[in-house]
Amino acid sequence: MLEELLTNLTSRQRDAVEHVSGPFLILAGAGTGKTTTITGKIACMIKVQGVKPEKILALTFSREAARNMEKKIYGLLGQGTNVKVSTFHAFCAELIRDNSEKCGISEQFTIFEEIDVAILIYKDLGTTSRNATLYSSTIAKAKDLNISISKFKDYLETRKESLLNFAEESRFEQFYNECKVNLNTFHLKDSSQQKALKDEKKKWQKFIGLYDEYRKYADFINAWETYEKRKKTLNCLDYGDLNKIALDFLNTYGTAELNDTYTHIIVDEFQDTNYVQFELIKHLTAREKNITVVADANQSIYAFRGAYANNIEEFKEQFGILEKDVVSLDTSFRSTNKILKVAHRLISHNYPEDRKGECLLLKNCNDNEGKNVVVQETKDDGEEARKIVEQIELYIENDVPLKEIVVLYRTHNQGRHIRQALQRREIPVIVKDDADYLKQPEIKTVLSYLYILNNLMDPTPRGTEAWWRLFHYNNSLKNSDSVRIGEYTQRNKVRFQEAIYHHLDEIELSENGCKTVEKVKETIRVLSEKKLLDVSDLLLEIYDLSGIVRHLNRLDTLKTREAFLNLRNLCMKWQRNLNNFIIESFLASSITLRSLTRWGATLNLQKSGKTML
Q1: 537: which of 254, 277, 326, 533 fits an S-S bond (Cβ 3.0–4.6 Å)?
Q2: Is 460 annotated to bind ligand?
Q3: Coil, helix or strand for 363?
Q4: Closest alpha carbon to 301 in 341, 242, 352, 260
Q5: Looking at residue 309, what is its pLDDT?
Q6: Is 66 annotated as a binding residue?
């Protein structure tokens, strides 16, 4: 296998594979066979250069990439090869567990994903779902960039100094409210008063802006500190903690043991490394500089999750990389030359003028020019969808198998138009998109029942959307009745839920409208008595009591059969607690079922009734 691999490598891949020791940089564009090169290099190190497998550490950024790399290594060397292939986070987690006492961490800690952080902040601080998501994202990025809470506090102090020019700290809130009132009533003053208060108005506006920013940072710091305390009591760490605690451990206790364990380091997707991860790499190579990093220069200009744009240049400087220590894989095994040239011209615009020469132009492995890239402009989404379907029909006429045709789109809305256009022409389609699945009417209706049940004890404005969805499912409530309900809530300044429960007789709905509202309320009442059931069992009750299943049974079309499958899958996903299934139909933030189930926050109404939804 190894001999066959080496025979099929390009000259540049072979240079990378046969590199013996010291620091090395592989610049690899998309589709240039970087994983083949990395795994070939590992196999060559073991079989040809005599490096012990257990001395090699390969780090990457995703579990999928790690599994793929591991699988290819086994294919070359056989099962049982003791090469350590891991994500950064998994490697750090293992290091912390092995040294938990020195790290001051319980060995049995669990790991929070970013969405878990958002849920915890939402529950413990009662903030909005949007702020919870924003805070969790900011905390993660701050940790990746090694920015501590104390640095945010220092910045907050500078904001406070600006506010002290207007009022004493004890009067900030009071003065802020006074400024708000003054501005809101400014139009009531006559022109002479407005002119006299012109400078004062600017002062009010400036203070409001400064105080809003001050409160924003103060609220964030409070959320972060509360989160850290709560997380500690739960014996949890987040991804940012893993890198930082591992780095702190190595700074405190040294790297001798780690350097004894691993003598050859390989880092994939190096352009995505953040500050803390780069520091870890330095520790891993403190004794021997046998490190190979693989990076896509075209992606290094983006600061994803704290990755900094010049880390490739930093690596060159830190490890003394010379021209002979760099190999650029410029042969694409994926795309034709014409596609590569168009992509190169497009991507080069992302580089500053003094770096445009760094944008690597790839060439096809067989020098296949391919067909011209066609850019088709259409006036709207509907015409775009029709054009795509016409092109697919041409492919079908030319005997191109359907399984070889894929449509990529940027937004869910585009995907819906394209799918509908394909279905109208009876072209079978498989949609790889859970978010679009969640927008199917039967799924949105069922999730609305769950949302209302969870929302009964603590009504929120977003709960209104779920009620409307139930009233209008299958056009049950007439638009005229909807208008009456809406006008009543606005005119009387009452919540939607209060209006339909306590003032329905005052709204003057039609007879059918009253029946529709009462029917939905009765269904909710019966379901609320079953709220202690597991979520999957509660879903089955909703299917039955809502009449959705009976309605679909009366119809026998392709669409209703798909609806049945959707309902079945929804129940199965809850039972399995699938980690990446996202309820985004009516939530401001993306929250996974696994996370919701973990916290018991979804429908755990037997307690306070006030949950994170």
Answers
A1: 533
A2: no
A3: strand
A4: 352
A5: 58
A6: no
Q: pTM of the entire structure?
A: 0.67
Q: Is 516 one of the annotated binding-site residues?
A: no
Identify the CA nearest to 86 among candidates 69, 100, 110, 98.
69
**pLDDT tens digits, 517-551:** 998 899 989 988 887 777 778 888 888 888 888 88
Query: Among residues 134, 142, 98, which one has the least CA distance to residue 239?
Result: 142
563 belongs to an annotated ligand binding site: no
User: Helices (DSSP H) in 188-293: which residue ranges?
Assistant: 191-196, 198-233, 239-253, 256-261, 275-284
* b/e 172-190 (16+ beta carbons within 10 angstroms → b): beebbeebeebeeeeeeee
Q: Each residue of 198-234: pLDDT tens digit?
A: 999 999 999 999 999 999 999 999 999 999 999 998 8
Task: Determine if residue 32 is labeled as part of a ligand binding site.
Answer: yes
Token pair in block for residue 199: 């400078």
Q: Which domains does the chain have, with CATH numbers?
A: 2-99+243-329 (3.40.50.300), 114-233 (no CATH), 381-432 (no CATH), 441-599 (1.10.486.10)
- The DSSP-derived string for 419-455 is HHHHHHTT-------HHHHTTSHHHHHHHHHHHHHHH
| CB contact set of 117 (below 8 Å; sequence gap of 6+) | 135, 136, 139, 140, 227, 238
What is the distance between the alpha carbons of residues 562 and 583, in angstroms, rounded to a whole number?
19
Q: What is the pLDDT of residue 463?
A: 66
Residue 28 annotated as lining a ligand binding site: yes
Share of the chain above pLDDT 70, in %: 88
CB 249 within 8 A of CB 96: yes
The whole-number pLDDT of residue 483 equals 85
pLDDT tens by residue, 340-361: 999 888 888 877 777 777 777 8
- Which residues does 595 contact at the CB level (< 8 Å), separation at least 6? 113, 115, 116, 119
Supply 419's token pair.
């799918």
308 pLDDT above the threshold of 60: no
